[in-house]
């Protein structure tokens, strides 16, 4: 059993995509990030960065005590190694998958996240910041489009955790002020991943939580006003 601490964000969707693909039994534990659930002491005990997703594997492969994992990229790697799925065993193929997972967690995710923040959530529209992150998101789309020019999936001809890591960050392409039609290889890949049964199931699992009311002003303060002191005061 995998206990998944989750909210329907791009990083949350990465993990449900893997779990559905692998057919692992899991239970969602909602972490309402706009209500401050990520600051609860019981969550911080195993997710010290006060971010979801995080997991508790109650049946780890070594047969020992439950294993906790935080950070979406680390969770994907852990689950891939646990199941032997979606991560090649060969040193060269594995290296390629890990390059693109790190590309997503270090580049596409943070840049698209800042794109969302300044374009959608910021209380004042700072044009320089909007242009900076819209342009950088566009550059990263171009990197991925070139990568997919002559291959079915990001790491080659097989679907891997690299695809699961990147896909949810392309889903909000309109909010990121991008034109997916301008990246034909990326769009072809995007459509292929979107149509996978496990992808459909993963996003369906998040729909009940996605349909909740929009983030309030108080919720925005929780999400975007964190400092070391404020986190400590809520823990």
Question: How is this structure best described in words?
Answer:
Helix 1 (10-22) runs parallel beside helix 3. The chain is built from ten helices and four strands; from the N terminus they run E-H-E-H-E-E-H-H-H-H-H-H-H-H. The chain has 235 residues and is α+β, with helices and mostly antiparallel strands. The longest helix is centred in the middle third of the chain and has 31 residues, at 91-121. The protein has helices at residues 10-22, 41-44, 72-83, 91-121, 127-147, 161-170, 184-194, 197-210, 217-224, 228-234, and strands at residues 2-6, 26-30, 54-57, 67-70. The relative contact order is 0.15. The mean pLDDT is 94. Helix 1 links the parallel strand 1 (2-6) and strand 2 (26-30). It has two domains: 2-85 and 199-234, Glutaredoxin (3-Layer(aba) Sandwich), CATH 3.40.30.10; 91-195, Up-down Bundle (Glutathione S-transferase Yfyf (Class Pi), Chain A, domain 2), CATH 1.20.1050. It has a four-stranded mixed beta sheet, covered by helices on one side. The radius of gyration is 18 Å and the shape is globular. The two termini are 27 Å apart. Residues 90-214 form the GST C-terminal domain. Belongs to the GST superfamily.
